[in-house]
Amino acid sequence: MKYKILLIFCLYFTLNSISSADWRKPFFRRISTTEGLSQSHVSAILKDSKGFMWFGTDEGLNKFDGYRFSFFKHYPDNPSSIDDNIVFDILEDYDKNLWVGTNNGLNKFDRKKNAFSHFFKEDMHLNVRDIFQDSKHRMWLGTSSGLFLLDLKKGSYTQFRHEQNNRNSLSNDFIFKIIEDKSGDLWIATKNGLDRFNPEKKTFLKYFHDAKKVNSLETNWIKVVYRDHSDNIWIGMLGGGIAKYNPVNNTFKSFKHNPQKANSLAHNDILSILEDRNGRLWVGTENGGISIYNEKEDRFTTVAYDPNDNNSLSNNSIYSLYEDNIGNMWVGTWSGGVNFLPKFGNKFTLYKSILNQNGLNNNIVLSVAGDSDGNIWIGTDGGGLNFFNRKDHSFSAIRNQSGNKNSPNTDYIISVLEVEKDLLALGFHRGGFDLYNRKTGVFVHHLPILNNSNSLSAPSVNTIIKDKDLNLWIGTWAGGLNFYDRKADKFTQYLHDPNNSNSLCDNFINILWEDSDGTVWIGTDNGLDAFNRTSGKFTHFKHNPKDPTSIRNNNILTIMGADKGKIWIGTGGGLCLLDKKTKSFKVVTEKDGLPNNVINGILKDSKGCLWISTNKGVAKYDPQTNIFRNYTIADGLQGNEFKAKSAFQAKDGQMFFGGPNGLNSFYPDSIRDNDFIPPVYITDFQIFNKSVFVGDKDSPLNNEISETTEIRLDHKQSVFHLSSLR
What we know:
Low-confidence stretches: 1-23
Number of strands: 59
Radius of gyration: 32 Å
Distance between the termini: 23 Å
Oligomer: single chain
Structural class: mainly beta
Strand order of the largest sheet: 1-28-27-26
Strand content: 35-45%
Largest sheet: 4 strands, antiparallel
Shape: elongated
């Protein structure tokens, strides 16, 4: 027998507190027809008690297990199918039954049989916009034909409709939403007014727009009514913005869009309202995105679609808002499918180039360094030198200007280093090496001079470090190692000599590092060297397939000091820890938990854990426990691939990693992981690689697989697969 188990883990993030002082742009994950959604207009969202997500669309009901979709559509020749493909609402009642309101009626879903039963007769053609169960477990429907109270035991109903000239009737038969207040009254949003209904007395109290009253509703077309955790009643209108009901004087406080105020409501056409667990009111508008209300500051922050950002909202018309039991936010849109905002936020802040916005001017980050003022300098692949002010989060750039000597030699900056306050060293791709004085704005250029051994040895400078005397060591591409004496303005070249075993092992240098003894460590494409400045000799460390204590791989990408005189070496074949005394290496690879063996950057946090950038995300590694926690693009990384030399740690502990799609930053202590343990359900059962369903010919399933406790197979069904949701 062959078993196949697929484990799908819930994403779990947070959105930072939204205030004028602290605002981070939400990082949405889009779920569209590309990912398997049946249609992109999502009117209803629900997470059921088993952990499955349900989406109501204009092309059927969708069930999502975090990995794949199942669809439920109307089929005229199947009386057990859903009665219509246009789904308006989904409810799981107190008894865990699933109800679906459609353009043609009310459906009850049988989870075991994957089948629907229909509450109303087929010829009623009832448009069910809202399903609501009150505190006494009574089921109410808001429809295009009035208000319905269902008797589920008898299968009967009581209907309340608008009656002309009857003040004790509905204001209008077209109902969008129903909620219950703390007194047990129902608030009903209709196409022509807001109604307050007492279920015991069967009386209606009506609220309309009154041009003579400042504190009345702004319009009569009420799209949504919502009760928050403080028992406030909020009303969303078409053309009238939102209003908060004041029960003391029976008036409404209005909030509308004001084009003169940036922090006003984004749009006056309201489609949905939700209060999150942090007390923030999310207002879904039509064509204006989401406005998030901070009541303390009495201001809105708007989240909207950005055509230049694939992680912005996918569409600005917000038809459904839903917060699940973990705290993840789900947003249903008019034509952009579902937008998912995981609870624990972006673990990583992302800086990138976005048209007409302040940010990087080029997304390919080749190098990162800090200065004495706490700011960040970023070398890019074609965008020149970018400056990031950490205090005001602003960016600026210094570009090459043809004919201007006081500009960078090129816009392709592979290495950045602060030599001393206000003096930067820049290494270029085919542009040599510059010293840039920030105060004077002067650039001093250094390029190779033909037949001059006291000049720079090669035009491409990969890495620069400063020693204790503030002189510079420069690693080049194909030109070996250079020592630059700043006082003498003179270069000393160290090159590979195949006839001298004490010379540099390779002329292609990726990384340099100086230890506390003054030894310069050189990472090349063909091994690791230790340079003794006193003797002028190079000691070589190379991979020996016959020696398990040798370095894992000869492509050396990054070097960082470790405790007790040891050194961490990042290679193209894994992470290595060098013991300088024994000259032996301990190796950590993908087999041990690394996401990838290409180690581009290594930083250490205050607790001794290493943060490692690779070609498959960022890993947190605890050398004491040998435990890994790996992060990917799903956690907010700029991408899964990172660049060597694009790792930097500020004095306050903030870390920066750069790659082909921008720059990530984070504080290690602020990274919070998912402590939610999801339930496990079998979601697919296959015999000979073919999924089997209830009702199939020769199917061993009597119930849907996630509702099945026992399966009996005959000898012809000996090869089967199980897939699970966790």
